[in-house]
Amino acid sequence: MAGMMRQVVLAAYARGNPRPSDFRIEQVPIPEAGEREILLKTLWLALDPLIRFSIDEKLLSGATHMQLGEVMFGPTVSEVVASNHPDYAVGDFVEGRTGWREYAIVAPDRSDYRGPPRKLDPGLAPVSTALGALGGPGQTAHEGIVTVGRVKPGETVVISAAAGAVGSIAGQIAKVLGARAVGIAGGPDKCRALRDLGFDAAVDYKAADFADQFKAALPDGADVYLDNVGGDVTLAVLPLLNRGARMPMCGYIAYYGVGMEGPGPDHLPGFYRHIMAKGLEIKGFAGIFAGQKGLDDIAGWMKQGKIRFPEAVVEGLEAAPEAFASVFSGNAHVGKLLVRVADKA
Ligand SMILES: NC(=O)c1ccc[n+]([C@@H]2O[C@H](COP(=O)([O-])OP(=O)(O)OC[C@H]3O[C@@H](n4cnc5c(N)ncnc54)[C@H](OP(=O)(O)O)[C@@H]3O)[C@@H](O)[C@H]2O)c1
């Protein structure tokens, strides 16, 4: 397919929270599919917070480290527009990690990221859900609530970054399991959206009376805390955790801009006291563990109308840098933040 395409490259390593100027848009020729390769047209791009680790000047533990000028990596849903591979036909939809670009070549036999691109069934749900409820965020929410959190009926579950991709699904899973779900999010609109999704309570951590509102939302304390955030939000949750509470540690976005050392003060002594005195069970997890079981559960609950999959869409590849920066600096997006790169061919 002759012609030019756009791609977004890393222009500068992020210092603190990422800024749109850390990225640059380039025009390059659309590549040709070689032997046993497929050409993918990007339809949807997901802006996952964990990408922040990879664009730090220093190599942070466990992260892919990007070079300046490299195309930004990231999960995508694409359409196959040319195929020299017997397992993929033109018109198939796939989920992969082809990055912030309009077209990409993939060699399924050599694909080293969690295997070859995953084929999607557009009859099951909109293909964009492969990046949200029926993809990594959904599996993460399932892992946090079902496997690590072991949420039981009647328990109270607190979820931070509750209006995000993981949190919005996690709260709904907690409800399916018969628990009480309390979300923490930034701003009254996000809190309203969480109540609309079925959360029993939602509290705005940016409100001046957050501490009072939060205590009022937890008359019997909390049995499980799905921590997506760390920082001041988690410091506010710790005193309200019940004895033996479980704390699946899913993310710590409040610290993603500070490398391995925080700006201080050091809250570890107080943190240790809560862990020991209350017998907290804290378990970190990273990557995808629930596998197909988690996705099957969520697909089933979606079919029964028990789980909705909010998506916030920004238009065009050129919107990606600003939208990504907004994940760390405040935005109005509820659910999975997606860039609509193109419509299907
Ligand atoms: N362990 C794993 O395998 C795994 C997998 C996926 C994601 N994660 C982690 O899970 C967390 C949520 O991911 P996601 O995909 O749901 O993200 P997301 O949809 O992009 O939502 C992130 C939200 O975090 C909130 N936030 C940002 N900075 C904050 C701060 N300093 N204090 C409090 N809240 C802040 C913002 O919402 P507000 O407007 O409400 O502040 C933002 O919209 C992230 O930490 C992510 O890295 C972990």
From TrEMBL:
Keywords tagged on the record: Oxidoreductase
One Pfam family matching this protein: ADH_N_2
SUPFAM superfamilies (alphabetical): GroES-like, NAD(P)-binding Rossmann-fold domains
InterPro entries reported for this sequence: ADH-like_C, ADH_N_2, ER, GroES-like_sf, MDR_fam, NAD(P)-bd_dom_sf
Top-level division of the source organism's lineage: Bacteria
Domain Enoyl reductase (ER): 16-339
PANTHER family for this protein: PROSTAGLANDIN REDUCTASE, PROSTAGLANDIN REDUCTASE 1
Name of protein: NADP-dependent oxidoreductase
Species annotation: Novosphingobium album
